Amino acid sequence: MSSPSVRNGKSDRPASQESERFPKTKRLRKRAEFQRVYEEGARWTNVYFSGFCRKTGGQETSRVGLTVPRAVGNAVNRNRVKRRLREAIRQNWALLPAGFEIVFHARRPAAEAEWKALEAAVQSVFRNASKPRPSARKPASGAR
């Protein structure tokens, strides 16, 4: 079975399948984008991940980035955590309001998490994204 072809930036997939994908336009990909969210965003934590949420100020599509540190496990485990998080994000994308950038930073328990618990944690983050929070970090005065 071959995959759908892509011509002129358009695929042969039905529109219903296109909306179920997690395209690059919905992802944070560059280091500078992650840094901006870390510096300007509000921090939050839960059992499975910590992260940062930044309101972009516009009505553009929200974007999400994932980081999984080596402390989570070997490469196989880290990639599995990323796949599961991406899928939970993709399935619950409709809950995320427009105009946000979110970085999920996985923790060790995410590697053993039940699917329903991981999905519920992502849903909670998306539902609470628009609630006001204090800024993530304030520059320390006199820091080296």
Would you give an account of this structure?
With 144 residues, the protein is of the alpha+beta class. The chain has a single domain (24-128), classed as Ribosomal Protein S5, domain 2. Helices cover 31% and strands 19% of the residues. The protein contains 4 helices and 6 strands. The chain has helices spanning 15-18, 31-40, 75-91, 115-128, and strands at 6-7, 10-11, 42-45, 49-55, 63-67, 100-106. It has a 4-stranded mixed sheet, sandwiched between helices. Strands 1-2 form a two-stranded antiparallel ribbon. A hairpin with a 3-residue loop joins strand 3 (42-45) and strand 4 (49-55). Helix 3 packs across helix 4 (115-128). The mean pLDDT is 83.
Radius of gyration, rounded?
17 Å
Please give the count of helices.
Answer: 4
SSE string, helix = H, strand = E? Answer: EEHHEEEHEH
Q: Flag low-confidence runs.
A: none
**Could you give the order of strands across the largest sheet?**
3-4-6-5
Per CATH, which architecture?
2-Layer Sandwich
Kindly state the percentage of residues in helix: 25-40%
Morphology: globular
What is the mean pLDDT?
A: 83
List the domain count as a whole number: 1
Q: Characterize the biggest β-sheet.
A: 4 strands, mixed
Structural class: alpha+beta
Descriptive key words:
alpha+beta, 19% strand, four-stranded mixed sheet, two-stranded antiparallel sheet, 6 strands, 31% helix
